[in-house]
Amino acid sequence: MAMNAPHRKSPPKSALDAIARAVGEKGLVAPADAAPFLSEWRGRWPGEAALIVTPASTDEVAAVVKICADNKIAITPQGGNTGLVGGQIPGGDEILLSLKRLRKVRDVSPLNNTMTLDAGLTLAEAQDIAAEAGRLFPLSIGAEGTCQIGGVISTNAGGVNVLRYGNCRDLVLGLETVLPDGRIWHGLKRLRKDNTGYDLKHLFIGGEGTLGIVTAAVLKLFPAPAEKITAFAGVKNAADAVALLAHAQDATGGGATSFEFMNRLCVELTSAHIPGVRDPLGAPHECYVLMEFSSGETGALRGTVETMLADALEKGLLTDAVIAESEAQAKALWHMRHSMSEAINTQGLGARHDVSVATSDIPAFLDAAEAAVLTLAPEARIVAFGHMGDGNVHYDIIGPDGAPKDALADRRAEIEGAVYDIIATFDGSISAEHGVGRHRRDTLAKRKSPVELHMMRAVKAALDPDGIMNPGKML
Ligand SMILES: Cc1cc2nc3c(=O)[nH]c(=O)nc-3n(C[C@H](O)[C@H](O)[C@H](O)COP(=O)(O)OP(=O)(O)OC[C@H]3O[C@@H](n4cnc5c(N)ncnc54)[C@H](O)[C@@H]3O)c2cc1C
């Protein structure tokens, strides 16, 4: 299905002036301050924009979008600018609309277990707001200090607690959204049941700003855990790690909130490049698992986890393990896990993948992918880590130690193609949690079925017939 007219190339001055009036002086970013909005974390996609605006309310967002719609000017929504697939970076004569000034806490209700927040609050702030109300907002990712509620919703972020609480999609009850024609959808319902037709919020969750702009959300809260135990184990291989997950869940009554896998190279890279990180186990192991367990009761969990680990050692499912003795030790273990992307960045771009398969298929996927990658690039190093409990592997291929940062650039496309071919044989996903953005747009077009692409394009054409919302991303 062909999309309608593409966005206008050069926004007319009269429209830019009208947008400037709509947001006022405080809502305009001066050219001298534009750089942080136009470059992203991996330095991969330099951006350009005709104007950068930071509206302060939903009404101001709607006013800007209406002017853009009337003039067919493209808009790139931006949250905390931590996305890893380039979706938040504009590619030309576009308006970059940052949500950073939408920061109201609209409602917190411990009785409903909900909070209603503006899109521009950071994820860490949302966690704190929940904690102040004696509740847990469980979404947690490495970028949580910077990424915003609107951003995590628009990318359907996953993170380390999906095993117990689900993806961002599972944590949203209602949304307020500005549609591509400037109308506001007031969907901030606090309902857990609403079977009145299509569940429209799910179009915008994971929509990567291609269907509208999320301005506020109703988020689910949970009882705050009374006790948490963090443990780190060495394992012989990925198959043992999968078996350990099943063992841990059986032995703790499904008490695992996180189950993070990493190969040896992850520990080596973080120990070498991230200040404060050191190998938590004395001797090297092939692979590792970082586990966290939580319970609503105090006192019993530690003993249960100790028994579980001892049994696992006896069964040969792990080779060594430590339990964090303090909050500081637990934080140090998580610091290592959350620093993984930063440590890998020091080694250059390589070929990065964020894939998923059924959890039980992870060992076979890793074997098949390693064989394919090393055939194409025998000198490559493989960094495999991720949320094993969710079947999610961050599978990053980097050049040899000390090689130039673009060492694998000549074979990147081939390596990615080989990994995605293997993912297809497992009926997996080419993007488990980071999204599509610019980075995987062409891969998506090749790898989704024609029926899926037809449905996606039909939705896009219905809501955004002029293609002004985040053009060139996802579709
Ligand atoms: C160190 C690090 C660790 C990470 N770990 C994880 C992880 O464990 N799990 C995971 O899922 N992701 C992870 N990510 C990537 C993750 O997708 C982003 O961090 C986050 O979800 C994006 O939020 P943001 O506010 O920065 O959005 P941005 O980067 O600004 O934008 C991301 C996309 O959403 C759109 N968007 C942003 N805000 C809005 C809005 N209000 N309305 C409509 N569209 C909008 C943008 O146009 C873009 O397409 C990590 C990133 C980093 C840097």
Provide the descriptors you would attach to this structure in a database record.
475 residues, alpha+beta, Uridine Diphospho-n-acetylenolpyruvylglucosamine Reductase, domain 3, Alpha-Beta Plaits, seven-stranded antiparallel β-sheet, five-stranded antiparallel β-sheet, 16 helices, 33% helix, globular, disordered N terminus, binds flavin-adenine dinucleotide
Approximately how much helix is present in the residues? 25-40%
Strand element count: 17
Which spans have pLDDT < 50 for at least 5 consecutive residues?
Answer: 1-7
> Largest sheet, if any?
7 strands, antiparallel
Shape: globular
Mean pLDDT: 95
What share of residues are in beta strands? Answer: 15-25%
Question: Looking at CATH, which topology of the domain at 105-223 would you report?
Answer: Uridine Diphospho-n-acetylenolpyruvylglucosamine Reductase, domain 3
Ligand inventory? flavin-adenine dinucleotide
| Helix and strand composition category | alpha+beta
Order of the strands making up the biggest sheet = 14-11-13-12-16-17-15
CATH C-level category of the domain at 105-223: Alpha Beta
How large is the count of helical segments? 16
End-to-end separation: 12 Å
Gyration radius (Cα, Å) is 23 Å
In the CATH hierarchy, the architecture of the domain at 105-223 is 2-Layer Sandwich
